[in-house]
Amino acid sequence: MARLQKVTLSQIKLTASLKKKKYRRLESLSIAEGSKLAAEALKAGIPVHSVFFTAEAAEEHSGLVELIMQRQIAVFSCSPSDMVRMSWLKTPPGCLLVYKTDFQPPPREGGLLLGLYQISDPGNLGTIIRTADWFGVEKMLLSEDSAELHNPSVVRGSMGSAFHIPVETGVDLSSEVESLKRSGYKIAIAVTSSGRPPFPIDKKTALIMGDEMGKLPPEIEGLADIKFTIPRKGCGESLNLAAACSILLYVLTGKTNIIKD
Amino acid sequence: MARLQKVTLSQIKLTASLKKKKYRRLESLSIAEGSKLAAEALKAGIPVHSVFFTAEAAEEHSGLVELIMQRQIAVFSCSPSDMVRMSWLKTPPGCLLVYKTDFQPPPREGGLLLGLYQISDPGNLGTIIRTADWFGVEKMLLSEDSAELHNPSVVRGSMGSAFHIPVETGVDLSSEVESLKRSGYKIAIAVTSSGRPPFPIDKKTALIMGDEMGKLPPEIEGLADIKFTIPRKGCGESLNLAAACSILLYVLTGKTNIIKD
């Protein structure tokens, strides 16, 4: 295997700075850690800035290193302590990829849109992106004041689906829902009580989920064609947002065909 | 409102020590933060060791303070900086309850058991407990080497359902599944491919979920009466464990009656 160039101090500093949202925004860069997530980024063809490996990880994932070098992406070796400095994780996996956040995955078809209103938890957002990808959601819409799409916890929780599924961020969800309705979309919303049990829907539907408390602004509620509530069979006050969203996407896509790879 | 006693240094030290799993185990104590979770603990009647409030939180939640005092539970005031020292959270909500972990919620009926094999992520475990409660799961079984039930992130993620639903921990899941099968339970397992799409089940079923990679030991796979796979309609390699579990619990309980509060 070709010898890797050594990381420089300025590269370490730049990468470590990406732990802060401010610098991720300023530099339009974020990080994806672990060989699996790095491989997903390469597979999706998103723009890569640089990749870092510890000696141990480079040896373990030599095929990945070769692939990165073939693509003429800047790849560097670093010490385990440099990796700790750059890593977002408690136990760094030894492979860290820095990517440019100003990309948009290719558009998809399918007819089901998913809008999230002020989702605040990065773990929930990552899980929802992964689930939306699984159920073939065409596009996601993230309202203003939502968790940051390129927060490394979101991308990690999405298992790379954040590299594949088109997501619009900073969306004024009320006007967007209005304009979707005008262009023929059915508007389905999730409500914590008094809605109908979910059922499979036809194409051209936008499912809009409220925040972690299940809240949606009244103007979006007012535009809803269907309100869904997941029936409670036991106890508890509510379902977790990602859990509720998973159930709704499963049921709503019940009629659609399975896309073969 | 009655004046609260001031927290002592030894109480602060004891509570702060509970951030470590070792001390949670040694003391059989753990913490639940926030007025909502504290109220859930009281409602569930679990054994409470002590409760701490900042002055601001005590004023805001004076009803809760009264209730705690009526129950003759030790309750103390502390400064915001003492609270930071004891708290598990970045932004402490100002109310922290210490409870004894050696309790078991009252048994339930329902016929659906949920077994988790080596679940490692506290966030996933908390979400699954909350979802299991919502769908009326009778009892949960956590295998050996699973995330700790009384990790404060689990209890928080469960939104208090961990105080309500019976959970057996450290279970030898293979022998338990064998003995459940002998006593007439149907064994349903989740597999990442080649299983049947989920459908509603009759009573007396144990649903067993694998670890975060979907893996189950072969002896449990061998005991399965039904293998379920959630059909993929889009892309991605897999679903998040808590998302998959939510969908399965929703579908499996499709036939059961809704329990009224």
Q: Secondary structure elements and their pairing?
A:
Two copies of one chain form a homodimer.
Chain A: E1 5-6, H1 9-17, H2 21-27, E2 29-33, H3 35-44, E3 48-54, H4 55-60, H5 62-70, E4 75-78, H6 80-86, E5 95-100, E6 112-116, H7 122-134, E7 139-143, H8 152-157, E8 167-171, H9 173-182, E9 186-190, E10 205-209, H10 218-223, E11 226-228, H11 241-252
Helix pairs in contact in A: 1-6, 7-11
Question: Can you describe this structure?
Answer:
Two copies of one chain form a homodimer. The first copy, chain A, has 261 residues and is α/β, with parallel strands linked by helices. Chain A has two domains: 96 residues, 2-Layer Sandwich (60s Ribosomal Protein L30, Chain: A); 144 residues, 3-Layer(aba) Sandwich (Alpha/beta knot), CATH 3.40.1280.10. Chain A is built from eleven helices and eleven strands. Chain A has a six-stranded parallel beta sheet, with helices on both faces. In chain A, strands 1-4-3-5-2 form a five-stranded mixed beta sheet. In chain A, helix 1 packs parallel to helix 6 and helix 7 runs parallel beside helix 11. The longest helix of chain A has 13 residues. The two termini of chain A are 32 Å apart. In chain A, 46% of the residues are buried. The C terminus of chain A is likely disordered. At the A-B interface, helix 7 and helix 11 of A face helix 7 and helix 11 of B.
